[in-house]
Write a structure and sequence with these properties.
The chain has 357 residues and is α+β, with helices and mostly antiparallel strands. It folds into 2 domains: 232 residues, Rossmann fold (3-Layer(aba) Sandwich); 105 residues, Nucleic acid-binding proteins (OB fold (Dihydrolipoamide Acetyltransferase, E2P)), CATH 2.40.50. It has a 6-stranded mixed sheet with strand order 6-7-8-3-9-10, with helices on both faces. A hairpin with a 2-residue loop joins β4 and β5. α2 crosses α3, α2 packs parallel to α4 and α3 packs across α4. The radius of gyration is 24 Å and the shape is elongated. The two termini are 33 Å apart.
């Protein structure tokens, strides 16, 4: 049975279509991430699942039960908000148990639940503090603890890490992933951060302009993007996308001065958009599996050392591309340099439909 099933979901605010026929099947125990730019509809979708917004059309089923007209409190869900939403006058213990008190859960059961989640989240020393005495990461743990004591069918996370600094985001990301591995409850997680999506999800739904562009595991999203939007949105730096032409088993870049071998059986001669990830453009000594790399010469336009690697902007066949080289590779700005290209992972897109060929 699906933990969450969304069918032909629409949402309009006045004359604006925010969701345009969203369909998702989410299995029990999955960690699903909804990712996309601001305004793509991901938070609206989460709010509809939570019951905080009414859909304009379509259905939402949680655990096999249609919940379009079911109150949020009766949907067997727990939500963790971006703002934490903690009561400032209550202690951590009171924040965690408040919802249980409202449901008349016996004191012994409340104490047992607090003991369990405080150990799970390592917040035992914080139970008598108030939110003003906590750091951002500690507040986020408390918000998660309040959700965990419900033992729901579905956890909903709405950009829970966006208020944290970069270092703490990385730490909390790992904690949430480990938490999911321990409890096994289905999680639907909204973020605009593609790194969060790639590192945490079992499957990712990439959204744009109210539609799901692709719903797949992270490896497929990254290596076989369904269209140019997904290719350009997922990845940092994003996939290089260049005008090209397929002809005779080769894809000719830009001005036609450079050709890359490609398996293009049945495509004939046609215009395409070539997609190539930056890590597929590296220093000449790099090996890409068992395949011999293609060596090309390109003009170096920008060099950005990051410590673990160096990001290089280069120009090839009149087109700008971004590559990644080892940190000890010395390149001269404005020079011509050799680069190795991994031709195994090239993607071709239709320039009219923008779909993967």
């Amino acid at each position: 049975m699906s933990a969450l099933m969304i069918r032909d979901l629409h949402k309009r605010f006045g004359s604006v279509d925010v969701l345009k026929g969203v369909n998702l099947d989410i299995e029990s125990g999955e960690f699903i991430v909804l990712v996309g730019p601001s305004g793509c509809g991901k938070s609206t979708l989460l709010n509809i699942v939570a019951g905080l917004e009414k859909p304009s059309g379509g259905t939402v089923e949680i655990g096999g039960r249609m919940v379009n007209d079911v109150a949020p409190s009766d949907r067997d869900i727990a939500m963790v908000f971006q703002s934490y939403a903690l009561y400032p006058s209550m202690t951590v213990r009171q924040n965690i148990t408040f919802g249980m008190e409202c449901r008349n859960v016996p004191r012994a059961a409340r104490d047992k639940a607090v003991e369990h989640v405080s150990k799970l989240l390592q917040i035992e020393p914080l139970l008598n503090r108030k939110p003003s005495q906590l750091s951002g990461g500690q507040r986020q743990r408390v918000a998660m603890g309040r959700a965990l004591v419900r033992d729901p069918l579905l956890f909903l996370f709405d950009e829970p890490l966006s208020n944290l600094d970069a270092k703490l985001r990385v730490e909390m990301r790992a904690e949430i992933k480990q938490l999911h591995a321990r409890i096994g409850t289905t999680i639907v997680y909204v973020t605009h951060d593609q790194v969060e999506a790639m590192t945490m999800a079992t499957r990712i739904a990439v959204m744009h302009q109210g539609e799901v562009q692709q719903f797949a595991d992270p490896e497929t999203i990254y290596n076989r993007p369904a269209n140019l939007f997904v290719a350009r949105f997922m990845g940092a730096p994003p996939m290089n996308t260049l005008p090209a032409r397929v002809d005779g088993g080769r894809v000719m870049l830009g001005d036609g001065s450079v050709g890359l071998p490609i398996d293009a059986v049945g495509l004939g001669a046609r215009d395409v958009v070539l997609g190539i990830r930056p890590e597929c453009i590296a220093e000449p000594g790099r090996r890409f599996g068992d395949a011999a790399p293609l060596i090309i010469k390109a003009h170096v336009e920008m060099i950005e050392p990051t410590g673990a690697e160096t990001i290089v902007t280069l120009r090839l066949a009149g087109e700008k591309m971004i590559g990644r080289v080892a940190p000890d590779v010395r390149l001269a700005l404005g020079s011509e340099a050799e680069f190795a290209i991994d031709v195994r992972k090239l993607c071709l897109f239709d320039p009219k439909t923008e779909r993967l060929i």
